[in-house]
Input
Amino acid sequence: MPSLKDKIVFVTGASSGIGESTARAFAAQGARVLMCARRLERIETLGRTLAREHEVAAHAFRLDVRDRAAVDAAVAALPDEWRAIEILVNNAGLSRGLDKFPAGLVEDWEEMIEANVKGLLYVSRAVVPGMIERGAGHVINIGSIAGRETYPGGNVYCATKFAVKALSNAMRLDLNGTPLRVTEIAPGMVETEFSLVRFHGDAARAARTYQGFQPLGPDDIAEAAVWCATRPPHVDVSEMVIMPTAQASTTLTARKT
Ligand code: NDP
Ligand code: 8X3
Output
């Protein structure tokens, strides 16, 4: 199995959930971990923990992936020892609201489109040219089962995740002939801060999302990302759909009442 030791992995949205677990999982394999999110204190604390527990280098910086100029500036300003990003995990993203169309807040639609689609594009556009120049790189996009199936109230969130699927396929086509790999990991329900964010901080409603069945945990997805990144260079896991056993589709979950 190819080693991740000393490879640089850049995880966007590492302050919580799947991103935090992914940073931890790569650090446990000896990778050097570059992290961004808006909540800087969280990723700085995580960086110190990873350095102490795994004796790896970690570097955290505040970034809102919706801000194209800030993304370009942050990547351009990386210290020399952090420039050779080998694995990019485009994880930063969110859902906002579950209202049936045409209800829903336009600001929520815009936030999802800007973070989940445009943010992923901005970060990839800033990082991938260096990967091409160096002749090594792996882009891992966190999509969703919501990018395979729509569900009532999912409308704009689903559209952004369908876009992640389309962009992952497009990157694979356009980077064909380079050594770069592109993977899309598409989870079903994972218990993170995702629903708390979706329901604008309504913790009781968020908790109901995961009631009566065992959802995935963020480590389940992080382990999959590590597995994809440690296949031999001629193997590109192009997509992986991972569901809780109790969830057969976006609209069918077996819950014990
Ligand atoms: P969390 O809310 O726990 O984590 C989301 C992360 O994204 C946080 O670190 C947050 O950091 C970051 N983020 C959000 N917006 C921005 C932004 N504008 N700029 C930078 N960072 C941002 O949710 P999850 O871990 O569940 O979500 C991670 C990804 O997984 C998302 O793309 C989500 O769509 C996807 N996903 C989640 C599933 C689930 O059921 N939980 C299932 C399938 C896919 P901060 O707020 O500090 O900026
Ligand atoms: C998150 C999974 O089904 O809540 O992408 O949209 S779902």
